[in-house]
Write a structure and sequence with these properties.
The structure holds 2 protein chains of 2 kinds.
Chain A lengths: L13 H19 L16 H9 L18 H13 L5 H17 L2 H12 L5 E4 L15 E5 L2 E12 L6 E7 L12 E7 L5 E6 L8 E12 L3 E2 L5 H5 L3 H5 L10 H10 L5 H29 L5 H26 L9 H18 L6 H11 L4
Parallel strand pairs in A: 1-4
Antiparallel strand pairs in A: 2-3, 3-7, 4-5, 5-8, 6-7
Helix pairs in contact in A: 1-3, 4-5, 8-10, 8-11, 9-10, 10-11, 10-12
Chain B lengths: L6 H13 L2 H6 L6 H10 L18 H13 L6 H13 L9 E4 L7 E3 L5 E9 L6 E8 L2 E8 L4 E3 L9 E9 L3 E4 L6 H31 L3 E2 L2 E2 L4 H29 L6 H29 L10 H11 L6 H15 L4 H5 L3
Parallel strand pairs in B: 1-4, 2-4
Antiparallel strand pairs in B: 2-3, 3-7, 4-5, 5-8, 6-7, 9-10
Classes of the chains: A alpha+beta, B alpha+beta.
């Protein structure tokens, strides 16, 4: 076989189910206390610092990390359960999500010990927010075209240039970014970029909000002007970021957040059609649920591979490709079916409000965190076509 | 299910490689390959994998049998292996011993119904019964006034009208007209027509997933050989992206099918969670058969549209298997009704149950 793409069935262990109950109970309390409304994904206050701290206090941030850094040394499957329950409840995870999923693991792997001891426990407590500085005005999917310079100076580097589409930069305490430390070579156009830890909210960094078509302001332009980064904030090999970037993609691309972003409209549709749907609604819902179930099983399977120490980059790319296309189409399929919902359905207004937001959200889903085109390129490489 | 996971699959793959090579079969217009293949499978005890030793079978686990069906799909095996396995499984549910030789099950559609009359005879019509023409015996699920029964029927007592499915395999209409069964017993609690349809549906899902794996395999290989516009077509981004999507469909089908097989193999009963798994597998695999098969053909161009090429052995069978034991439309309606009856707030707990 050319393609040994296996998604072995993983059964979540018993302790995951116990944990799931705890997470659901916690979220129910938060909802009851008015922290957030699970039916309102389009709220303005997506940043919820106090909620973030309470999640941290539960031990649900950095849960797979070593205890000495504040982690719990629990499994990826347990982390998976927490992530999916938060996502399905529409909990405000913005403040901690990137740090927990991505930035923490990068620091664990590449940061010097004193920085790990300083920062990781604060992520685990839900105190700090991270952003990722990848894209630039002329460098998006083509990451290696990045031009923002890090020029060597006494004891560190001076940063000049602009990052863009940087989610959460306006609230972030830190950013993990790639900057150009050398020019690419003839042999390797990916050479010359270095990964850095950047402390935000300092002079030399200007964050300019960018309005999105949803009406929200989640991403930003971040301008660096002679901004100083000390030597010990270099993450990994100077000029060698390209070696580091790929293996972490499996963490970023296979999680439940890659197919659940518009899930709420499906729940609301089921509520609207009631217990005795007509054939058309039943068939539409049945197909969507079958597709959802399949993606979740694939995604859980990738979590199992991560737990087993594998680097399932191609499998994760498949999950993100199929998952994001699905969550992008979901509001439109739900809209198709909602056309036949009775005028008297009590949640009709909620469904319509949600559809309005989900339809505006949909276009970004196949762009953020690796476009469909990039993903299919990675899959094609895995198939031996490149 | 890794290919070397178990002895059952290893044995089967060796037999398939020796006696069910798709190119050899495709060249053999007279069907001379069939008898040696069936004989080898029978001698290895594979058709009665799901029948315990004391009922005449080889007593393999459900999991091993499912893995075997996935392997059979990878070779697009066109003998009644899956059908005999399902028949043996059904009979074993009622502790009825399996005879030797080819069998099939009926009904093979959730819409058809066989009834048990007061005189102990069976009547009814079942359409789209796979390989009925080749079967020596039929395993029948019927309805009597006291509930479901399972019966072994001599196939010569039934009237069989031949038909062919989209994949050129027998898909026949079987009519029972007051037929006295060889053996008949009540179905145990928890085994009814829906259970049979779910089992059959998962079997077909695994076969479809296997066929898609092979379609991906031969499509990738072909794209690395075929030259157009002075380069291998695998170097064109449009072709690469099509093949990436085929890989996704193949992976989704395999994931859905193996997950459902695992759920059934480890379930105590056919509860809602198993229903979700099995129905989803059939729905998603059928969708993948359509989308994935179309890409495999697109990559192959005209050569893939010929009888000479082996692609149709996989692509058309995968499409045909969609129809057996409930189409994706049937299962989608049923799954949708189940979800609706449980209510909106019970959807996620159902999806997250494993």
């Amino acid at each position: 076989m050319t393609a040994a793409l296996r998604f072995d069935p993983i059964r979540l262990p018993e302790k995951c189910e116990q944990l799931r109950k705890e997470v659901r109970a916690f979220l129910a309390e938060e909802i009851a206390a008015g922290t957030f409304d699970p039916h309102k994904p389009n709220r303005e206050d997506t940043d919820a610092p106090e909620f973030s701290r309470r999640v941290g206090a539960k031990g649900w941030l950095g849960m797979t990390w070593p205890k000495k850094y504040g982690g719990q040394e629990r499994s990826f499957l347990e982390r998976y359960v927490v992530t999916e329950e938060m996502r399905v409840a529409n909990a405000p995870t913005r403040r901690f999500f990137v740090a927990d999923r991505q930035s923490g693991p990068v620091l664990l792997k590449y940061a010097p010990e004193h920085i790990k001891m300083d920062i990781l426990p604060r992520i685990c407590r839900g105190e700090i927010c991270f952003a990722i500085g990848m894209s630039e005005p002329n460098s998006g999917s083509d990451l290696f075209a990045a031009k923002t310079r890090a020029t060597k100076t006494d004891g560190g580097y001076l940063i000049n240039g602009t990052k863009i589409w940087t989610s959460s930069a306006h609230i972030a305490d830190y950013m993990i970014a790639i900057f150009r430390t050398s020019q690419p070579t003839k042999e390797n156009r990916r050479h010359g970029l270095t990964q850095f830890l950047v402390k935000m909210k300092q002079p030399g960094i200007q964050v300019n909000p960018i309005g999105q078509i949803t009406g929200q302001y989640e991403f930003n332009e971040v301008v660096f002007t002679d901004f100083f980064v000390p030597d010990d904030h270099v993450l990994g090999e100077v000029d060698g970021a390209w070696k580091q970037a790929t293996s972490e993609l499996a963490y970023e691309r296979s999680g439940p957040e890659r197919f659940l972003e518009t899930y709420y409209v499906l729940t609301e549709l089921v509520r609207a059609v009631g217990p005795n749907p007509d054939t058309r609604s039943a068939e539409g819902i049945g197909r969507l649920v079958a597709q959802l179930h399949t993606m979740r099983r694939m995604s859980v399977s990738v979590a199992g591979m991560l737990q087993a120490g594998k680097e399932p980059v191609v499998e994760a790319s498949i999950v993100k490709d199929i998952g994001t296309v699905w969550e992008q189409q979901l509001p439109h399929r739900v809209r198709d079916l909602a056309a036949f919902v009775e005028e008297t359905a009590t949640n009709r207004e909620t469904l319509e409000r949600q559809l309005d937001f989900a339809i505006k959200t949909a276009p970004k889903l196949t762009i953020q965190g690796g476009t469909t085109e990039v993903l299919r390129g990675i899959i094609a490489r895995g198939l031996g076509l490149r | 299910m890794a290919e070397s996971d178990n002895i059952v699959v290893e044995t089967a793959e060796k037999i398939f490689a020796d006696l069910a090579d798709p190119q050899t079969i495709n060249n053999d217009k007279k069907g001379a390959w069939q008898a040696p293949l069936w004989q080898a499978l029978s001698e290895a005890g594979l058709p009665l994998s799901w029948v315990p030793d004391d009922l005449g079978g080889s007593g393999a686990s459900l999991a091993d049998g499912f893995a075997l069906l996935n392997a059979a799909g990878r070779f697009a095996v066109a003998v009644p292996l899956a059908e005999t396995m399902l028949a043996g499984w059904l009979l074993a549910q009622a502790k009825i011993a399996s005879p030797e030789g080819e069998m099939t099950v009926l009904p093979a559609s959730p819409k058809d119904r066989i009834t048990l009359d007061a005189d102990g005879s069976l009547s009814g019509r079942a359409r789209g019964v796979p390989f009925a023409k080749a079967a020596k015996h039929l395993a029948v699920l019927a309805h009597g006034k006291d509930g479901a029964v399972i019966a072994l029927v001599d196939a010569s007592k039934a009237r069989t009208e031949s038909g062919l499915n989209v994949g050129y395999d027998h898909s026949d209409t079987v009519t029972l007209d007051k037929v006295q069964p060889v053996t008949i017993k009540p179905a145990p609690d928890g085994v009814d027509q829906t259970t049979l349809m779910l089992m059959g549906g998962v079997a077909r899902s695994l076969q479809i997933a296997g066929a898609l794996e092979s379609m991906l395999d031969i499509s990738v290989r072909y794209s690395n050989e075929r030259v157009a516009f002075e380069k291998k077509i695998s170097k064109f981004q449009a072709v690469q992206h099509n093949l990436a999507r085929l890989a996704g469909e193949s992976a989704a089908a395999l994931a859905a099918a193996t997950s459902a097989a695992d759920a059934i193999a480890n379930a105590k009963a056919f509860d809602d969670a198993v229903y979700l798994e099995a129905a989803s597998a059939k729905i998603r695999c059928a969708e993948a058969a359509e989308k994935g098969g179309a890409i495999a053909h697109q990559v192959h161009g005209a050569i893939g549209f010929t009888m000479e090429h082996i692609l149709h052995r996989y692509s058309l069978r995968a499409l045909a298997w969609r129809d057996d034991f409930g189409s994706e439309s049937h299962w989608a309606v049923e799954l949708g009704k189940l979800v609706a009856s449980r209510g909106a707030d019970e959807l996620w707990p159902l999806v997250a149950s494993r």
